Amino acid sequence: MAMMRLRREDPRVVGSFRLHRRLGAGGMGVVYLGSDRRGQRVALKVIRPDLAEDQEFRSRFAREVSAARRIRGGCTARLVAADLEADRPWFATQYVPGPSLHDKVAEEGPLIAAEVASIGAALSEGLVAVHEAGVVHRDVKPSNILLSPKGPRIIDFGIAWATGASTLTHVGTAVGSPGFLAPEQVRGAAVTPATDVFALGATLAYAATADSPFGHGSSEVMLYRVVHEEPQLYGVPDALAPLVRACLAKDPEERPSTLQLSMRLKEIAAREAQGIGDARPPAPRVDHDRPTGRLSERYADQDTERGRTAGTPAPRAHAPRASTPRTGSRPSTGRGTTRSGGRTNGRPGTRPGTRTTSAGRRPANPRLLRQRLVVFVVVTLLVALGIAAAQGCQGPARSLGLTLEGQRPGARELPGVPLMPRGTGAGALTP
Length: 431
Prior knowledge:
There is one protein chain. With 431 residues, this protein is of the alpha+beta class. It has helices at 49-52, 55-68, 101-108, 113-132, 183-187, 193-209, 219-228, 241-247, 258-278, 294-309, 366-399; strands at residues 13-14, 17-25, 29-35, 41-47, 79-83, 90-94, 145-148, 151-154. The chain has a domain at 13-276: Transferase(Phosphotransferase) domain 1 (Transferase(Phosphotransferase), domain 1, Orthogonal Bundle), CATH 1.10.510.10. A six-stranded antiparallel β-sheet has the order 1-2-3-4-6-5. A two-stranded antiparallel sheet has the order 7-8. Residues 17-265 form the Protein kinase domain.
């Protein structure tokens, strides 16, 4: 909410509150940011001098403030203090930080269905508390809804019947903002909680489309459309359109209650929030990106079930072979092949009875490859150790250049020359 410096004519202290900034001005008076001695911040509204002199307004103001004191709801700005006997009556409500719904939509555009439903559910729940206190807001509109970090809050409830620059401010006439007024308010009939339901429906339509359901124009044109024309709900999400249209019914008896509206909007918000998660597009994937391990086993199981339903015996799953099959090797019966007369379990588009290429096969299971690699390494080490042990036993004999039989390795018997017997020759030891 935009803040402005205090002007020269603005008071500095009202009641027990010190004023710091201007928050805005409307047809009813000026709103200030103030604080009490404990530092609690409030939004304090001082009534215009001309309205302060109207006794009818003072009586009506006193009744509304008395009813507002009884409101106990988390979705409303709590009334903190008021002085009905001051020269210029004033009241202070809890200060709610955050932009108005009007400003948020104007700056960021229409809200998604889940956000609209969530905000509407909270506002409906707040209106339940307002109506139970015997108060009808009469001026529910986007600028009277603040989006605080703790959720939406309704401000100026019950006593905002003459606020807003575009508001009809004459006492005794229709009170509210054109485009958000209910038909019974325009006709001057009695207002009921259904009046706030109509205004809330128009507010939700604005949040979903960034426009009033009755368009734009002068106050007279807008009021005529509210009474005689149907609302334009183009752009309202399908999940919300029927409920918003029911809220904007001309007959108050045909509108849902605030409790029904709150429950219905909570259901829509939950469903739409779930739909947002489901609607996220998956990451693009090609054949060689398919997952392996347990997920690939699920794919294999799914393909097996599809093969059974098609009348084809379920093929046994094998690890894929090399990309180029060896001559005479047994053809693989995994995912990349199909049997004659059956349905292919490889890539879509392969004809029965033909083999798919290596590009159509899924990658090998890394767990199986790791197991084979470990077995290969262990076997290799065992063989190497065995060879080393055997060489160690033959080492002494080889160091003398003789075999166990006393012969040089590779010696042959030449014709007429016998091999030297054991223990003889230049290398023999004498006793």
